[in-house]
Amino acid sequence: MEAIFGSFDVYLTGFGLTIGLAVVSGVLSLVFGLLLAAARVGPVPVLSKAAAVYVTLFRNTPLLVVFIFIAIALPRIGITFQSIEVIAVGDYNVSAFFFRAVVALTLYTSAFVCEAIRSGINAVPVGQAEAARAIGLDFGQVMRLVVLPQAARAVVPPMASVFIALTKNTSIAAAFGIAEAAATMRRFTNDNADQRIEIFLLIALGYIVVVEAIAFSSYALERRWKVAR
Amino acid sequence: MRMTRTKVAAAAAGLALLTAGCGNAGSDESETRDVEAVEDAQFEEGTRMAELNEAGEITIGVKYDQPGIGFQGAGDDTPVGFDPEIGKIIAANLGIDPENITWTETISDNREPFLQEGEVDLVIASYSITDERREVVGQAGPYYVTGQQLLVPSDSDIDDVADVEGEEVCSVTGSTSLDNARAEGAQPRGFDTYSECVDQVLDGTVSAMTTDGAILLGYAAEQPDALKVVGEPFSEERYGIGYSPEYPEMCQFLNDTLEASYEDGSWEEAFDITLGQSGDDAPEPPALDECA
């Protein structure tokens, strides 16, 4: 116990990075996934095919392989993303390691976001879109004004699962230069071989807290958007 | 369908790249020496040594990714390096031939659990002796003392530990070396294995790699044109032999065996054909800790 409570700031920094990775890649995956879903259900065949291929490629590839590709294979051919390090948020300089982890997580997660959104869109009766077309709305308007608002409700539970998976998936970054929670756990166990079990449990507890926060916000959203049918 | 084909081409290119990363497999045949089992090994009834001698086989955990220390290339049957050589000496003194040793890969993280659960009988895996570890497992030795140094590209400006402040330095996630680098003001970057870390140095995504000098020398010896080891050692790592805490009698046996190997020259010979290949002479064997 004292291993973690003796250096609690290290524990908090670890989970800070976990949350940072989850939030940044979560937002980017949401945006990218939404564009993919729009392309996939949209009327342009090329875009629709391309989005389908993207989903097939990234949903079927283990995240570890995506990480190895971004963090180990790309630098080998000179793509290191180091130019990103000139960008500063306040006093904090964005590191290429963080950026590479975000790229890997976003590429992977947006495939799942796309499919979750598509399931929501499919849940909206086709008559809704037809009616919207009949009053003269174009594809963008149909999606934005009629279909997506209704789809959003159906999307909340699967989307929460996607983000929970993303949060736990950030732990893969531990092996790619990010000192997030899982890396912190390994640092603690290495220094305190005699307190392994306590360290595992406290790290697991940290993940449970973060994931529960996502779960509770999803329940809250569900309640808020609920409509009488 | 053009999109599909481009994606497939991209994926194929990616795969080719990944496999290209595994280029330097296989290892030097000369890095091994023949050890004969002691025929008439005698042990007191009921000790662990007697059990192992009776069974005629032993499981030893070593590293598989540290050239010179413990390394197994993709095509090799057994790991080679200083640690496996020490393992063979220990096994021989238990009356066990090298063929009857089962080598198991241990990584930094699973060495204590493997010993506690009896997954391996001994851990000889660049296993630094620390007080915390001695709380949960037994550690005999040290049989080798090294210190943390830096591995940098040959054209790097870094030539001492003072130069790493503010630089990104990689090592294995959660290792003591990474903690020490952090204490020196470097930005620590953890990777899963040492070889991935070496790749990061070669690709220039980190400025240096740090861990025990012995391990770094092994990598530098593999690519002398691209890499060099710099700086005075800034920590002291004392490699010990891990054994299960249930068999405290192992300690004295291990110490006696190491002592004997110091005297009959087998320790030095083991060093010369492994770590010594990077050009270093065998150092004085370190003084062993008393068994509790």
Which helices and strands occur, and which strands form pairs?
The complex is a heterodimer of chains A (229) and B (292).
Chain A: H1 2-6, H2 8-41, H3 45-59, H4 63-76, E1 88-89, E2 92-93, H5 96-123, H6 126-134, H7 139-169, H8 181-191, H9 196-225
Helix pairs in contact in A: 2-3, 2-5, 2-7, 2-8, 3-5, 4-5, 5-7, 6-7, 7-9, 8-9
Chain B: H1 2-20, H2 48-55, E1 58-62, E2 65-66, E3 70-71, H3 82-93, E4 101-105, H4 111-116, E5 122-123, H5 131-136, E6 138-146, E7 148-153, E8 168-172, H6 176-183, E9 187-191, H7 194-203, E10 208-212, H8 213-222, E11 227-230, E12 237-243, H9 250-263, H10 266-273
Parallel strand pairs in B: 1-4, 1-5, 8-9, 8-10
Antiparallel strand pairs in B: 2-3, 5-12, 6-12, 7-10, 7-11
Helix pairs in contact in B: 3-9, 3-10
Main location (chain A): membrane
Subcellular location (chain A): Cell membrane
Membrane topology (chain A): Multi-pass membrane protein
- Point out poorly predicted stretches of chain A: none
Tell me how many strands of chain A there are. Answer: 2
Arrangement of strands in the largest sheet of chain A:
1-2
Sheet-strand content of chain A, in percent, reads under 5%
Alpha carbon gap, first and last residue of chain B: 72 Å
CATH class bucket of the domain at 23-180 in chain A: Mainly Alpha
- Helix share, percent of chain A: over 70%
Total strand segments of chain B: 12
CATH architecture of the largest domain in chain B, by name, is 3-Layer(aba) Sandwich
Q: What is the architecture of the domain at 23-180 in chain A at the second tier of CATH?
A: Orthogonal Bundle
CATH class of the largest domain in chain B: Alpha Beta
Number of helices, where a helix is a run of at least 4 consecutive DSSP H or I residues of chain A:
9
**For the report, how would you describe the main beta sheet of chain B?**
5 strands, mixed
Q: What would you call the shape of chain A? A: globular
Q: Structural class of the secondary elements of chain A? A: mainly alpha
Distance between the termini of chain A: 52 Å
Name the average pLDDT of chain A: 89
Which structural class best describes the helix and strand composition of chain B? alpha/beta
Family (chain B): Belongs to the bacterial solute-binding protein 3 family.
Signal peptide (chain B): 1-25
Domain Solute-binding protein family 3/N-terminal (chain B): 57-278
Keywords (chain B): Signal, Transport
